[in-house]
Amino acid sequence: MKFMKLGTQPDTFYTEEATRSVISDEPSDLVVQINNVSYLLHKLQFSLLPKCGLLQRLCSDFDESSNETIELHDIPGGEEAFELCAKYCYGITINLSAHNFVPAFCAAKFLRMTEAFEKGNLVLKLESFLHSCILEGWKDSIVTLQTTSKLTEWSENLGIIRKCIDSIVEKILIDPAKVSWSYTYTRTGYKKSQKSIPKDWWTEDISDLDIDLFRCIITAIRSTYILPPQLIGEALHVYACRWLPDTTRIIPSENSVSQAEGVTEKNRRILESIVSMIPADRGSVSVGFLLRLLSIANYIGASPVLKTELIKKCSLQIEDATPSDLVFPSHSSASQHFYDVDLLVLVIESFLILWRRQPPESVENTRLGRAIRKIGRLIDTYLQAVARDKNMPVRKVVSLAEALPDISRKDHDDLYKAINIYLKEHPDLSKEDKKRLCRSLDCQKLSPEVRAHAVKNERLPLRTVVQVLYFEQEKGSRATDPRMLTHELLSRGKQMQIIRDDLNKLRLGGDEQSVRTVGMGRTPISESSARDYQKKKETR
Question: For the whole model, what pTM was predicted?
């Protein structure tokens, strides 16, 4: 980072209580009060008045021989900026850089330290430093722009903000191969020893800026139509990671502790700005990023309008998600489970609104038709993770499993795995809940291997097992011997009570098998009831 050194004299300012004085043989004849600090200075002995047009005008009404007191409470940059200007007048060494340029320049302008009062005055030197050093540097321009947030109005009127933004945007738009300045880039797997410069080399440095300044830069970049939307999206992603909370690391039980209202409001403002800057182009940001923004919106209590907009954006790309993208925690104080299934159901429902608008005959070959099958596989894989949550209510699993239409699942093997995991992790589930859970399972869409497993699965409701047996004989599967399936049903006889006459009607593999059972009170399943079930499935 570049700096400018002015003056050669040692620092002779010292503090006594709330007063700043200068070591000198001459008595002070000017008191400048700024906030709670008083400066005892000299009007003429050290060129203070000759270099400051404002002080000349304020002191013109007083006798030169008298001590005068001037109040400058409204000077930009406060006492620190004034002291820099005063030291310059005394010839004391001062160091200027991007960190203190803005307050020094604004204060010098305020004090009218221009060429009209002395040739080579401070304002001219600062302007030269701005154009020849600060604006020529990458990080100097960013740091200077960042410091304007404390003096926004002054910086805007003096053109500092516009000049810094133009300088930053100009460097961002340059060919990466021509980048010769240092920049911050901490992506995993990237080594600075690599000769090629990444296209998003600029994203981390500008993420240090306030959201309003960041928006100005992104808006200026987009207005040129030079960079692709994906680079804009990457900049938004980096900024969100820098400023917004990571909801995946927040324990749901901690949500009862209210966030500081100031922090929450700031997060809402940042989130709204980021969402408003997302390019309309599909794929400009990943669906994983959109889902994370949606989770954050839910966590910080964003407006319903913003959440609706995010849900719609997520639904347009949900088929590109991975199971890990869907794993975000629930932040409801009333819920004890970890996964936010309700939020995902809203995204699926939003997608289905678009999907249902397609003519039925064209669904198969459209993007939405292909997408819904990908979503089916995605949701079933996600359900396998959700099922391991011991506090996950069965109604939420069922609501997500049933949110998708039949066409979304070519087979039900993955759905069966999710149901089996849930039953294993929730051994105390009631009979009714087990039936509700298995209601969405279509036994006709199970592979022979899974059907063989289902018949032996004692966690399943008996009704589901009998349905599997029936459709096994309907499909004439060679993977499993029907007599062996009957044997598995008989092995559960100690736990079942099925009317013998009804079971005699159930034919497996063309042979009529009589099954005797004793024990538990289960609802008898007949061949006619199984056929009724099959007809219902066929008419769906």
Answer: 0.82
